[in-house]
Amino acid sequence: MSRVHFPALGSEDLTNVMQIWHIDTEEVRRKMIGVRSKVWFAIDNNPVIGQGRRDLLVSIDRYGSISAACRKMGISYRKAWSSIQAMEGCLGKQLIFRKRGGLGGGTASLTDAAKDLIAKYDRVVGGLSEFIDHRFQLVVKEEAE
Q1: Looking at the whole model, is its pTM more than 0.90?
Q2: Quick one: which of 47, 42, 57 has its CA closest to 114?
Q3: How far is the C-alpha of 97 from the C-alpha of 46, rounded, in Å?
Q4: Cα 138 off chain centre by
Q5: Which domains does the chain possess?
Q6: Burial class for 102, CB neighbours closer than 10 Å (0-12, 13-18, 19+)
Q7: Taking 50 as the threshold, does the pLDDT of residue 9 lie above it?
Q8: Neighbours of 105 (CB within 10 A)
């Protein structure tokens, strides 16, 4: 079954569309209803870190190289470098220790500031995810009654 998304429609509008198309609304609701959110930290409305940049930092830490992290994540080195510069520029702190490549290539590791940033982001996102999931369950339960 294909999934059809109507982000601009309310739940009543979506129900009407599904009825017009003869779609079993209860079956669709059981299979598709969920909640998702995106969280990022910003300074003066400039994004500092969100899930993608967090994953980049974790990948750099894991693989010890910006290039290796890019390959594993499927992003360009230019995009990664731009993200690192944006984060460091917003925070005014170095996040990556870099050693330029030679025969064996360069290395990269996270500063304590980067590790602290990841830890804070994870704590905020974890808490928000739990809250959103709980709130969503309450709303779905109210609607079912």
Answers
A1: no
A2: 57
A3: 23
A4: 24
A5: 1-33 (no CATH), 41-124 (1.10.10.10)
A6: exposed
A7: no
A8: 12
